[in-house]
Amino acid sequence: MRTSRTSCKRPQLPGWGLTFGFTIFYLTIVVLIPLLALFLKSITMDWNEFVATMSHPRVLAAIRLTFGASFLAALINVVFGSITAWSLIRYRFPLRKLLDALVDLPLAMPTAVSGIALATIYSHTGLVGSHPFPLGIKTANSSLGVLIALIFIGFPFVVRTLQPAIEDLDQEMEQAAASLGATRFQTVMKVTIPSLLPAILTGFTLAFARALGEYGSVIFIAGNLPMKTEIASLLIVSRLDENDIAGASAIAFVLLTATLLILLLIQAIGWYFNRRTGRQA
Amino acid sequence: MASHKLKADSVDPWWVRWLLIGATVGFMVFLLVLPLGVIFWEAIRKGWGVYVIALTDRSARNAIMLSLIAAGISVPLNFLFGLAAAWATTKYSFPGKSLLISMIDLPFAISPIIAGLMYVLVFGLQGWLGATLASWGIQVIFAVPGVVLATIFVTFPFVARELIPLMQEQGSEEEWAAISLGASGWQTFLKVTLPNIKWAILYGVLLCNARAMGEFGAVSVVSSNIRGRTNTIPLQIDALYNDYKTAAAFALASILATLGVITLIAKTLLEQKLEQQNVQEEST
After folding, report:
1. CB contact under 8 A, B38 and A121
2. Is residue B210 part of a domain?
3. What gap in Å lies between CA B92 and CA B168, rounded to an integer?
4. B67-85 pLDDT per residue, tens
5. A202 in a structural domain
């Protein structure tokens, strides 16, 4: 038994020790130890102190705004991101390639740069913000401003997740549905959207998770009024400025745990759909 | 590749097509094109003189210098890590491999502010190592080393993330052929693997560099507010903008925006290059 197992075992390419060792060493130093520091700091916190920190009205308001705006932004991105991905893949029109490349702009641009650009355009004197302002709609220094920045930052995640899914769509299914007498609308609702559902959910979740932790592109347009337009990340910074490291850690712990759970959920979604389609096949 | 599919697309009525294309263009203009345009417009609106002064002023030069230092240290380190991690995770099979790949992605999932806080907890005066390091005369948080460390964390996965899927797809047959012909490990890597992944490396390094120069949240947590000493370009932009020195803020922002646009162009070119490679391989 033993000899047969070793003879079956494939020899290895050189470099295992060096590359694996360095990978683990570097990962531990740069990522895992600092991460452990945050978890230990939060876990060793006195429970009553933790509850008191988290139930402070300013903290609750910031968390509500962060989660609410992130959720709404991801939802809006699902609508416009789907339309964008569909148009970019299925239709041919002038400047299509340029727009396709521009989708990644929010990821390529430093957040502070995006932040001041969005704040300038959407301020009440700005190129866009000055038009709805007389009607009483504030696109900056308001929760609408937070929403705009979070839509900006989440957009590429939805489009880039949906594009390969649309490319892989089985167009014969659509044609089959059409030849069986379904209208185009029925085909889209009953065939196309259900087969895109896993990608839509994944894109939504990625955009939502990214928005939860976003800082740079939000703080310039938000106005940062406590209780009104202050996001959780900014509150962590304020707590740190007040030297309240425990308070900052508590908020960070909640935000990070939520983000990681959401990303785990994506894995679960992928696993669920893979298993289902695997069974059907 | 997609040409045979295209004909089937005329199923959408013209007005649906135009509605969807119109929505796409409109949404992207308001969300992406206008913000990109306003950066350059605001930067040069007050004239080239103001623009040049804004970029050559002492604190701007210091900020550019510190950003170059942070990128100059973090990019090579993360490049080496990317190579090692990609080799280890694509050339061997071992238990826990997908867990390792997920952990490499962790810095993507962690908010920059939380990343900065984590480093404060390790290296700050009330943290694990801060007091010890301070007794040796080393200050990390609110000083240049903190800025560098935060930058390393934020840009940690970029090169690895570009290389792992590509090397997974390419497999290791070519490497095995070289080894069996008597090449050493290093020769194999330099002569066989490297040429196959050079464009992905270039893009990964460009992306890593653009992010290193542009990181804001994590760096703002670990840097002090003493201007000119630990201000990177984004922190200087923040300071100028809050002082209502809009033209100077956008002048500095235009450098980073240019870097971002170059990264986007490089990405597009790389994708074309990889597509060509695939087509060539399929035809041979």
Report:
1. yes
2. yes
3. 10
4. 999 999 999 999 999 999 9
5. yes
ipTM over 0.85: yes
In a domain, B184, yes or no: yes
The total number of structural domains in chain B stands at 1
Give the span between the Cα atoms of B203 and B273, in whole angstroms: 12
- Residue A26, in any domain of the structure: no
Q: What is the 3-state secondary structure (H, E, C) of chain B?
A: CCHHHHHHHHHCCHHHHHHHHHHHHHHHHHHHHHHHHHHHHHHHCCCHHHHHHHHHCHHHHHHHHHHHHHHHHHHHHHHHHHHHHHHHHHHCCCCCHHHHHHHHCHHHHCCHHHHHHHHHHHHCCCCCCHHHHHHCCCCCCCCHHHHHHHHHHHHCCHHHHHHHHHHHHHCCHHHHHHHHCCCCHHHHHHHHHHHHHHHHHHHHHHHHHHHHHHCCHHHHHHCCCCCCCCCCHHHHHHHHHHCCCHHHHHHHHHHHHHHHHHHHHHHHHHHHHHHHHHHHHHHC
Q: Binning pLDDT at 50, 70 and 90, where does residue A207 land?
A: very high
How far apart are the CA of A49 and the nearest CA of chain B, in angstroms?
A: 18
Domain that residue A94 falls in: 67-223+251-280
What does each C-alpha distance from B9 to A96, A184, B121, B257 come to in angstroms?
16, 11, 56, 37
CATH number at B117 reads 1.10.3720.10
Among chain B residues, CA nearest to A32: B103
How many angstroms from the chain centroid is the CA of residue A33? 25
User: Could you tell me if residue A11 is inside a domain?
Assistant: no
Residues 50-79 on A with a CB inside 8 Å of B are: none
Tokens describing residue A148: 């705009």
Whether residue A211 lies inside any domain: the answer is yes
A82 touches chain B (CB under 8 A): no
pLDDT tens digits along B106-115: 998 899 999 9
Check if A23 contacts B (Cβ < 8 Å).
yes
Number of structural domains (chain A) is 1
Domain-embedded: residue B110: yes
CATH number for A161? 1.10.3720.10
Neighbours of A33 (CB within 10 A): 16
Q: Is residue B163 part of a domain?
A: yes
